[in-house]
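Example record

One chain of 149 residues, shown exactly as stored in the release files.
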Amino acid sequence: MGLQTDIESLVKSVDLELYDSVIVNEGEETIFRVSVISPEFEDGKRKSVSLDRCVELTHLISPLLDVTPPVSGEYRLEVGSPGIERKLTTLDHFKKSIGEDIALVYDGKEKLRAKLLEVDGKTLRFEGEDGVVEINFDDVKKAKTYFEW
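Predicted structure tokens for this chain:
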């Protein structure tokens, strides 16, 4: 099993879903960032992930990284939620965002703000002001969830 699969198993063991894991450089520091989401919904919205659950998961993942480090050299582990407004870069991100409001740029400069209804293969279906809009995932240039405050 690979590191990603092992991390996903640990995340599932605490009843969460792995959203993403990335290595980022901020200044001189390297960070291995693990983002998790709750599989549960309340009032049509995904439940939040508590700080206590992130700490618990950090304690589970840390020993694994001692054996199989994600990068060579010094790094810091960060476990948290990707946030209410987050980038969508993979089909899996879109699948985990069904029912949420999405802002995206596609087909060059076309912009859309709409609710994601469905992901069918590479077809993304949105409910917008002008009805249902279908966009091919490969045409998406930039996308993120957004929250109406």
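Notes: The chain has two domains: 3-80, 91-145.
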